[in-house]
């Protein structure tokens, strides 16, 4: 368990994921915690980290580890989950993404020992997860 990141934020290139990383980076509550970010495109994730770094002036942001994970690729989600203690799923904003791909992220998180948190507000998704 020691080799796992404390927190992995999935969906950092979007507004909400970017906001979550900003909040974690500037909060004393997360000082000393290991953080990684995940997304489909390494180039886009790295660009998002540089933008966050520029906005808040925390140089360590651009050095956060990047995990390539795609909600339509179960193997990549499983690999991400094996590296995390907690996964914050901020994928979106399209209303149907959690309904189509959210269960896979939840399942891979639970099956691989990671705790799961999301920002879903979709009743159909929330009611379908057991």
Q: Please, could you describe this protein's structure?
A:
The protein has 130 residues and is an alpha/beta fold. It is 43% helix and 18% strand. The chain has 5 helices and 5 strands; from the N terminus they run βαβαβαβαβα. The protein has a 5-stranded parallel β-sheet, with helices on both faces. Helix 1 crosses helix 2 (42-56) and helix 3 (74-81) packs across helix 4 (97-111). The protein is globular, with a radius of gyration of 14 Å.
Provide a brief overview of the structure.
The protein has 130 residues and is α/β, with parallel strands linked by helices. The chain has 5 helices and 5 strands.
List keywords for this structure.
alpha/beta, five-stranded parallel β-sheet, 5 helices, Saccharopine dehydrogenase NADP binding domain-containing protein
| H-E string | EHEHEHEHEH
Structural class: alpha/beta
Q: Note the gap between the termini.
A: 25 Å
Main sheet specs: 5 strands, parallel
């Amino acid at each position: 368990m020691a080799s796992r990141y404390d927190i992995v934020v999935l969906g950092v290139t979007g507004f909400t994921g970017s906001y979550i990383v900003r909040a974690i980076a500037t909060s004393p509550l997360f000082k000393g915690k290991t953080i990684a970010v995940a997304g489909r495109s390494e180039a886009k994730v790295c660009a998002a980290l540089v933008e966050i770094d520029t906005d808040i002036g925390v140089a360590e942001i651009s050095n956060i580890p990047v995990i390539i994970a795609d909600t339509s690729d179960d193997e990549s989600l499983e690999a991400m989950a094996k590296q995390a203690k907690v996964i914050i799923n901020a994928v979106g904003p399209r209303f149907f993404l959690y309904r189509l791909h959210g269960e896979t992220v939840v399942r891979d998180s639970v099956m691989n020992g990671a705790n799961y948190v999301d920002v879903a507000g979709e009743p159909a998704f929330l009611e379908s997860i057991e």
